[in-house]
Amino acid sequence: MTQPATILVLNGPNLNLLGSREPEIYGHETLADIEVLCRRKTESFGARLMFHQSNHEGELVDHIQTARGNADAIILNAGAYTHTSIAILDALGTVAMPIYEVHLSNIHRRESFRHRSFVSRVADGVICGFGSLGYELAIEAAARKLGLEPVP
Q: What structural domains and CATH numbers belong to the chain?
């Protein structure tokens, strides 16, 4: 019997403050709320979820490297590191699996420095501006790419 597919959802800096940080931009859901949503969506495809958040660039790189051999797809909201981190770009370049970039807000309607994404260079898809629904859409895209069907 084969192991179920594993989807890694990785969240970057300040996302631990969701629900209280700029709710007019990021909404009122907490990161814990988003984890529950992601777990339900992942399980609806019979897959496993690994869910992490870190404010530290190196720790995010470590999680990406650990995904090699332990996950089948990565969904990444790198937060501000999206626009600054070549280290995260390089780490993502070492994984041979689908990668989806997610942002709660529409980064293209915000400050000009947020319009550039290093993550997009290696992402199979980019979802922004849909709030927490973006995570669900990314999980569905990853599941389809992995050939998973919804569990009846």
A: 6-145 (3.40.50.9100)
